[in-house]
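Encode chain A's predicted structure.
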Amino acid sequence: MTIELARQKRRKGSMNRRSRKLMLSPVQNLYETCSEVFADGKAGFVPPPKDIERLKSVLDNLKPENVGLSADMPYFRATGSDEVPPLVTYLHIYECDKFSIGIFCLPPSGVIPLHNHPGMTVFSKLLFGSMHIKSYDWVADVPYSKNQNTHHEDLAALQHEPRLAKVHADSDLTAPCKTSVLYPNAGGNMHCFTALTPCAMLDVLGPPYSDDEGRHCTYYNDFPYATFSGDTGSLQAEEMEGCGWLKEMEKPESFVVVGAMYRGPQFVEN
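Encoded structure for chain A:
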């Protein structure tokens, strides 16, 4: 009898938690799910598959109005010239030492340059619009040698030796679409976005960038594979297809992100 009562209490408690989740606002549900999924988060932490799917499901169901956005807001109006990419706006929703939530708002032709996510698991949800995404994962530390076809001025600009990377994605993305996930060593950890139309991308980073903990945002130039040569070791010729070289660079001066206050539905911190 005692065992059966305990089972009933557990079932009731589980039902109550599920019922509460259904009653939460979408942004409150997102915050609480992130808090649970990244409760043990640290650099290099990858949530278990069931938690990955759980957070993806929450983000898949998120709509622009759930975070107070619409395509006619000033953030999404093109103001730059043909030569200079327009400003990108970042709406900060929440950050702690375990995870962060924020939204990048891009006007047409807005660009987020190729950059990395050291030790992070990142969920990206395109809320509306269309963009082109190109992403890479590292192949290996492969020494390079100067290709005779490489121009001297290109080599003079190199600050660090390039590293070999494999293209993970090189395609257009249009909302509505599923949430994408990248991991510390897979899934397109280095990526760049180019807005084809006004668009908004919500990112969940676990853990967030931290200069104090050595998680710096590094930017890259990408070069075709033929630009350099190197000792590719045991890699076969077919494995070189879709590969390129990534070289660290300073943050591009043309890439300007302005912060703006998040004015969408609020949530209560636990």
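Residues 166 and 241 are 8 Å apart (CA to CA).
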